[in-house]
Every structure is written in C-alpha cells, then in structure tokens.
Specification:
Elements lengths: L1 H8 L7 E3 L6 E6 L12 E7 L11 E2 L9 E7 L1 H16 L6 H15 L21 E8 L6 H4 L7 E4 L14 H11 L8 E3 L3 E3 L4 E5 L7 E9 L2 E17 L5 E4 L4 E3 L6 E2 L14 E4 L8 E15 L4 E18 L7
Parallel strand pairs: 9-18
Antiparallel strand pairs: 1-2, 2-3, 3-11, 4-18, 5-6, 6-7, 8-10, 10-15, 10-16, 11-12, 12-14, 12-17, 13-16, 17-18
Helix pairs in contact: 1-3, 2-3
Length: 347
C-alpha cells in the first residue's frame, strides 16, 4: 500500500529528461528533482561520451540476443536529506488534502508520512526520523528512474520502491537489485552506442554482370574499435563504465536467392590487419574472391538490395575493476546493386 501511495505523490513530475549537447559526439541524460526556484535541484546526471547518439537517443546497434534488452528503470541517488524533506513533505501534504483521501488511501498517506517523519518501518524497510535531516551531507535518498527509451510503459515504471537512504561510500542494500551499478551503466552505454555506417566496397561497383564474381572488401581504416562511456557522479557516489565494440565479421546477403556468396556462408571474417576481404586488382578476374558474390540472374529494370551486416563483439569495463561481455551487436547497411546480362552478338 505504501508503494501505491508513493506512486501518487512522489516524482509526479518527469523524473528523467534528455539534455542536448549540440554535438553528434556525445549526449547527456539527467534525472530532475524539481526547479531552481524551490531550491530542489537535479541530483543525478548520467553522462554519455564517446561514440553515442546525440540528445540521449538510442544508438544504431541491434543486439544479436533477442532476449537481451537495456534496463527499463533503475534506482539512483535522488536528493540529499534536506532537499528530499522539502519535496516529500510538500507532496504528502498535497496528497493528504486531496478529495477522497479517506479510508485506505488516507491510511497509506499517513503511514508514508510516519515512515519518513517518525521512524515507522516494516520488515527490511527501516523508517527515518525527520527525513534523516540529521545526516544531511552524509548520504542521499535514492529513487526509481525510468529509462525514457524503453517503449513498454509497464516495464519503464516498474521501479516502484519507496525512496531509501544510502550512506556515502556504501552500497545500496542487496534487496534493491536494480540499483545503479557499473553493469547497468555499461548496458545503457550499449543502448546509446552509435556504430559507423561505412559501405562495403564492391568491384565492379554498383553495376555488375550475371555470372561475374563481384569482389567485396572493407579496408582496415574503415572499421575500428568503438567506445561509449556512461558515468554518474554525485557527492559521495561515482560510477563509470565503458562499453567497447570490436568488429569481427561481415555477412553478405545478396537480396536474391539466385546468387552465390563467397564463402558459401556469406560470412567474411576480419583479417589480422583489421581488413576484411581482398581488394580487386587487375589480373584477378578469373579468381574466386575470398569475400564476394556472383549473381546468377539479371536485376532487370531494378536493383537487388545487398545487405551487408557487420557483427561487433561487445565488452565492458567499469569502476572497481568490474567488467564482462554483453551480447554481440549488429549493424546493417543496404546497398543497391544493378546486375546486367552479358550480351553476345552472333554473326
């Protein structure tokens, strides 16, 4: 019941907003806790840097694991004791005076007030005396934060625990499994990561012939490791995580079943020097390309939609030596290819 009550009177204003930085090289996202004229100000900002989408938008990486998704919400530092008292006490007063706040809803509001003012607690949720004002500066109240890029409103709003106190330098109690961690930051950096969209080089370029091998390659300078960092830094609490994407393979899908790929799987791996495939050169016309396609029929008056998908190995490192792997990421480029019949003239 207290959880239901808190959803009605805490964080009723948007708790998460994107902040433009005017650059395609980075973005910031911040949790807001009120307005400057009330003295209640933003206490949390997740900052993104490196190769990330601008203005807090999702990046262009698609996870190869259909069961993986970024965190829909999490718990993070919200306000110090004095600022939290200003906001929370005002909202409790407003909720208590609203029409219909009698019976069970009224009792829930009363218990919420007692929780933060009189030390009323239950099970593993200790209460607070006067909003913990005596410990102001020694820690912060934490609260749920929604991921604005999560489309499912129920998942986005699933961090419904009452705001809770965490001392500076201490970890949140284990029961708050969604409390912000380096791994959560790494997943958010993954969500915002922007990968390069370089086209595959083809020979012949754009227009090829039926039964003529088309060579495909990427120069080592076209693709390289990509880094995205997410960090949070407030008094007494700081975390950071960097997610790294390393290109590992290129898969070609010709856009028609009437084609052969090289290798047969259509998946070309990166060479030791960071390149993929082999550039076409004069004298190689009779050779089979290590990475390429042979179209077996004409595209007629149209084109075939060649899909070139790069697979990226995703790993992360974070505060305190934390680190690990995330699901591989993919990014797909489409290229229009015209395939013509070779005309022969009989005399």
């Amino acid at each position: 019941m207290l959880t239901l009550a808190i959803s009605a009177l805490v964080l009723t204003a948007p708790a998460y907003a994107g902040k433009p930085v005017g650059s395609d090289k980075g973005a910031e996202t911040e949790q807001t806790g009120g307005t400057d004229d009330t003295g209640i100000h933003s206490a949390v900002r997740i900052e993104y840097s490196g190769s990330v989408a601008p203005n807090g938008a999702s990046g262009n990486v698609t996870s190869s694991d259909v069961n993986w998704s970024p965190p829909p919400c999490w718990y993070a530092p919200y306000l110090g004791a004095k600022d939290f008292k200003k906001e929370m006490s005002a909202k409790i007063k407003e909720a208590a005076s609203a029409p219909g706040m009698t019976g069970t809803p009224g009792a829930a509001i009363g218990q919420t007030k007692a929780h933060y003012e009189d030390g009323y607690g239950w099970e593993d949720h200790p209460g607070y005396e006067d909003y913990n004002v005596a410990k102001d500066g020694e820690g912060m109240f934490w609260a749920g934060v929604e991921n604005p890029n999560e489309p499912d409103i129920l998942k986005r709003g699933s961090c419904t625990e009452l705001p809770f106190w965490v001392d500076n330098g201490e970890a949140p109690p284990p029961r708050y499994e969604q409390a912000i961690t380096p791994e959560i930051l790494a997943a958010l950096a993954y969500q915002h990561m922007e990968l390069p969209g370089t086209e595959v080089t083809l020979a012949p370029a754009q227009t090829t012939k039926v039964n003529l091998p088309t060579w495909a390659w990427l120069d080592k300078t076209d693709f390289h490791e990509v880094h995205a960092t997410a960090s949070i830094n407030v008094p007494g609490f700081a975390l950071t995580a960097t997610t790294t994407a390393k290109p590992v393979s290129l898969k070609l899908e010709p856009g028609t079943p009437d084609a052969e790929t090289y290798p047969a799987s259509g998946e070309c791996t990166f060479d030791d020097d960071g390149s993929i495939g082999e550039p076409y050169a004069k004298g190689k016309a009779d050779r089979t390309p290590p990475c390429g396609i042979t179209y077996l029929r004409s595209s007629g008056d149209g084109t075939f939609n060649l899909q070139a998908t790069i697979t990226w190995d995703i790993a992360w490192t974070g505060t305190g030596g934390a680190g690990g792997d995330l699901p591989d990421g993919t990014f797909e480029n489409a290229q229009a290819v015209t395939v013509q019949e070779i005309q022969a003239v009989n005399r």
